[in-house]
Amino acid sequence: MTDHGTYITVEEDEADIATLLGFIRERGQPIRIVSHGAPVADLSPAAVIPARQALPAPDPTHRVVMLEGYNPTECATDDEWPEEAR
Fold this sequence. Notes:
Elements: E1 6-9, H1 17-27, E2 31-35, E3 38-43
Parallel strand pairs: 1-2
Antiparallel strand pairs: 2-3
């Protein structure tokens, strides 16, 4: 037992990955994998991701008001373009 929870060696690891993941899920502790006395990897429980928060309701004061007769899909006329962009 270490500060990383349980450890196993590569040489004795005959368990399948499902067994190791089940151990991590049940105990919530990581498993350190060791090869020839040297740490190789740590298998850790996944971080808990918080649920998405609901978006706030839209502010009714932030709305688009189109002028009467304005068509946003209409091409700009030559006089509406800046002189240097014509």
